[in-house]
Every structure is written in structure tokens, then in C-alpha cells.
Amino acid sequence: MSDEKTRTGPRCLVTGATGYIGGRLVPELLAAGYRVRCLARSPAKLRDYPWAGEAEVVRGDVTDAGSVADALRGCEVAYYLVHAIGSGGDFEETDRRAARIFGERARAAGVRRIVYLGGLTPPDVPARELSPHLRSRAEVGRILLESGVPTTVLRAAVIIGSGSASFEMLRYLTERLPVMVTPSWVHTRIQPMGVGDVLRTLVGSAAMPPEVNRAFDIGGPEVLTYLEMMRRYAAIAGLPRRLIFAVPVLTPRLSSHWVGLVTPVPASIARPLTESLRHEVVCREHDIARYVPDPPGRPLGFDAAVSLALQRVRDAQVTTRWSSASYPGTASDPLPTDPDWAGGSLYTDERELTVDASPAKLWRVVEGIGGDNGWYSFPLAWAVRGWLDRLVGGVGLRRGRRDANRLRVGDSLDFWRVEEIEPGRLLRLRAEMRLPGLAWLEMYAEVTDDGRTRYRQRALFHPHGLLGQLYWWSVSPFHAVVFGGMARNIARAAENAPAGTTAPAPAR
């Protein structure tokens, strides 16, 4: 691919580029010859993507009319891939307002096409009976269709791909529960679609003729129940046949908590997924093929899509995950400037050790932290903290890592997110567990004046109110065990790691 400045194809704006679909769509558009501009609230999150040097990135938010207008200037196609999928009661209004702003600004900018990825809705179910999230997605589609800009609304059900929330839910439910009592929605008929076919359809939709302004149902070639999907997943993954018993008493709320306990997908994300499974979601037409023809062998069948996703997971080639986008309701403020920060208290716990290993070996340990490697201290304490976070609706400790060895800005890492990384020197993580305040964890690999390797670690906490103060002082007695042990074990792992290899996992 050539540099963005040398491209001559139409310019596309991609919103939601830090999300699961957006992060995969950008390189597909680039490969198809388009120039790409990404609108992101935090452009730094896109800095380390493989395609970062090929696309233009601008700062902005879809709820800010000015930044949307600036981002749309000079664009012919605009992809709308954002949703306020939080649990707050005002997310529908946020979605509605953002869609109106986007449509109005796109029309004013002379955009020739909007492409929107929404959700498949059953035709015979009144809007009031749909889940709030599915209802909001349908409303966003209507708003964009009425914007005066020719719009393509693609309505998909379950998307199967490595790292997608739907795939992770299916995968972990099936792998972890050989016998399970399930909600009655496992008998709902669904038309899943592989993520590669979704991306192919999104790219192809950019070239639709101007008279097309409508919604299209998109799906794979098979209609399955969720029960059939779990059993076929088990067969593909080489697992024994699963025993599944459906009961009618699990409400969507209870179902989401059940999914949240068993899978890495937290209840707040699982709920809109499970709510959308209450009704049959099957395509009523395949008109999209008139404008985006299916190549031979496409769309992929369920088994092929699952096999491909599993292979990507096993080969550590998961380019984006459901957790690529920031978790709703968690802190997103950058680290305050310290020590002269005027915003209030900023508590710190600092550790420093000299390490009898090269800086490169120490850095491999630091960058490999979390996920299967754990946190190098008191595993039970970390596990308990993760479970407590899940119980109060947080992300818990099981999101793991996108890549076993490499991190990039914006990656989720268990209940942290990578806020900054300076390869070979600094890893800064921002906490996304439920806390009465904001928290960060910094790890440094440094060289001292006398040429020795130094590991420096700093935990920071900005409390919110009295509860935040009480929280800090209640946990500070355990810092010597948790953070002190963490620093010592990281140093020891670096010292024991063979040259040129990744560091060994900590003892559990």
C-alpha cells in the first residue's frame, strides 16, 4: 500500500476506527484503493496499528458538530460505525443526537454516500418490544436514511470473527461448560455472518449508485439456532458433545450476568447481545448481492467462519477485539501532571529495583505482563479483585490480551487499558475496573548512570470524594505484598529469562 498522500481514490471517513469493525475496515478500504480519514476521540489509540501510516487520523467526536464537519470536509463516503452501547439510561438520546449531527453535517459537506452497520430486526415485532439497543440501532438507521444523503444501512445479526463479542461469547460458553442450563433463547433462529463477509460488504457499499437509499439485510448462508451453533462450535473445536438444557426462567438481565460470569464479555456488553437473541433474526432478502455480488464460495458458511476465527486465535493474529473500543462508563482521563497537579490528591506507590539483566530482557517481561502470564504477585488477590469487579458490573480480569507478546496503545489488558507505551522503556496502564477514582500503573525499564538496568514501578490513584479516600487507605496496607511482590518477581523473571526469548510465566 502506498502512502496516503500519494493515493488518488475517493476519500472515506471512518468513524469508530478504534472499535472491532472499524479497526478492520480501514485496511480493507486502503487495499481497495480508497484514501481513508479516521475520526477518533483519542487519536493516540490508532498510533500503533499496522496501517497507521497509511491513513489520516483527526481528533473529534460524533456528538460534536464542529469536529464532525471538519472531519467530513473533502470526503465522498462516510462510514458510521459508532454506538453508545453503555448501560446508562440516556444512551438512546445520545445515539439519536449523534446520528442527526452526522447526517446534517454529511449533507452540508456534500458527502455522496453514508454507510451504516446496524442490527437485524424482526419484521413482525413492534419497536417497543425490541431491546433498547436494537431499537436504537434501528432508529439511527432511519435517521441517516432521512438525512438527505444517499445511505446504505446494512443490518447484520451475529458476526463471527476472531475477537468479536458474539464469537467470544459463543466460544467461552461452549468451551467452559460441558453441561449447561441455558435461557430459552438458545432455540432462537439466527443467521450468523463471518466478519470477512461483513467487511467485504461494507467496502463494496461505498460504490453504490446515488439512487440507492435503503436498508439491506445481510447474513451468512445458514440459519441456525444458538443451540446448533454451540454444538457445531464444539465439534469444530474438537470438544466432546455438550449437554444443554434450556429453561424459560432466565431473563435477559439474568442471562447477561450468567454470560458475564462465564465469559470475558462483561454483563453490560452481554446484555444487548442476549436481548437481541430473544427474537428471530433471519434475513428477509439478499438484495445486497445486486450491488455487492458474492464471489465464489462467499459468504462463508458457519463452520468455515468459526474455523477461520479459531485459527486466527491460535495463531495470535487477532487484529481487533470487542474490547478494542473503550469500555462504557470507565475512566478515560489522561494521567494528570504530577507532582504539582492542581486537581486534588494523587496518591502513589513507588518501587525501584536494580535488575541483573539487560534492559531488553526486562522489557520483554514488562510488555508480556497480564493475560496468561498473570501479574507476578499474589495471584489469588488479583483473581479476587477481578471477581469483585465482575460482581459489580465491571470488566473483571478475564479480557486477557489481544497478542501474547506485543502491546499497542488502546489495547485492553485484563482490567487495564494501555494508555501509553514507549517500546523498551515505558508501559502505562489505566484502570478500567470499577473504582471510586482514577488509577494508573506505570512500569519502566531504565539504564542507570553506571550502566546497570533498573526497574521502576509506580501505581497512582486519584480518589473521588470520601469513598475514594477510604478506598485508598483501606488497600494501602496490602501494597507491600501486591506491588512489592510484583516488582521483585518481574525483576526475577527478567534475570531468569534466557537471552532472546520471552520471559517465563510467573509461578502460580
Automatic annotation (TrEMBL):
Gene3D superfamilies named in the record: 3.30.530.20, NAD(P)-binding Rossmann-like Domain
GO cellular component: cytoplasm
GO MF annotation, one: aldehyde dehydrogenase (NAD+) activity
InterPro entries reported in the protein's UniProt record: DUF2867, NAD(P)-bd_dom, NAD(P)-bd_dom_sf, NAD(P)-dependent_oxidoreduct, START-like_dom_sf
Stretches assigned to the NAD(P)-binding domain: 16-158
CDD domains to which the protein is assigned, alphabetical: SDR_a2
PANTHER family for the chain: NAD(P)-BINDING DOMAIN-CONTAINING PROTEIN-RELATED, PROTEIN YEEZ
Protein name as annotated: SDR family oxidoreductase
Organism in which the protein naturally occurs: Streptomyces triticiradicis
